[in-house]
Amino acid sequence: SGIESSAMKRSRFRDRMLIYFVTVMVLPVLTLGLLGPLLYTREVSDLLAIHTRDLVGQVPANLELTIRDHQKILGMILSDPRTANLYNPDLGDDEAAEILELFNAATVSHPEITGLIAVSSEDRMLSNEFERILRDPLVDEDWFTSAQASDSSFSLITRPLGRNLLNRTGVDPDEIVSLIKSVSPVVPGGPS
Asked: Is 152 left (phi over 0), alpha (psi -120 to 50) or beta?
């Protein structure tokens, strides 16, 4: 009976040591292996949501700033004396080349502008980076009628697919956002 009790004590001591050892090993594995990544993932998700909300909140302000900048660029182009004959049906090749030079200067100095196009109500077109794909009139396209209806304010068109225009810059049409604006011919000495 003395031998049995010492064997039981050793057995209990061994069981206790095994329980302590397992507890000491399992506790860090659970906290570092399971709870740590769970807490880390939740924290990263929360930070990502906050950051995304902040960025989305900045989009309207940046868009407004971009539109204002492009209005100024368009104003500078239209105030240039070379564009005075832009809507003239008898626009000569030299005058057209000067206007295209002005369009090119604007797109080179502002790399966010892929190209500029001027289309008259008589379906005459002048552009530095776009060309007509088909002979169909540009004045019948949605973007042209939308610009005429927008009362001289900028309109924003995303995904300009299905247009009768081809851009020669190599920029994918999915990457283009178009700002369109109807512009009346400037009468010399009149209001602009």
From this structure: left
